[in-house]
Amino acid sequence: MSHRILIPTPLKRFAGNADAVEVDAATVQDIIDTLEERYPGFRGRLCDEGGQLRRFINVYINGEDVRFLNNLATSIPEGAEVSIIPAIAGG
After folding, report:
1. Domain that holds residue 31
2. Which of 27, 55, 23 minimizes the C-alpha distance to 39?
């Protein structure tokens, strides 16, 4: 099923400056795989060398952090809101 993925401002340049993309995906891993296929190098912005989400990247499905669900294996229900949120530090 197709999901609209909002691309946060810090990552837009890696996604052809798109604000959002439509992705056919059943899991968070499927989203990352599709983004990598369309925009080579995008996975490296989201995942570490071991293939897990980087510490400073948060992915939410309907407002729930996937790290507290099934991480990259988290299923995405139809009509779900998927958000990729990079952590921002400041002081």
Report:
1. 2-86
2. 23
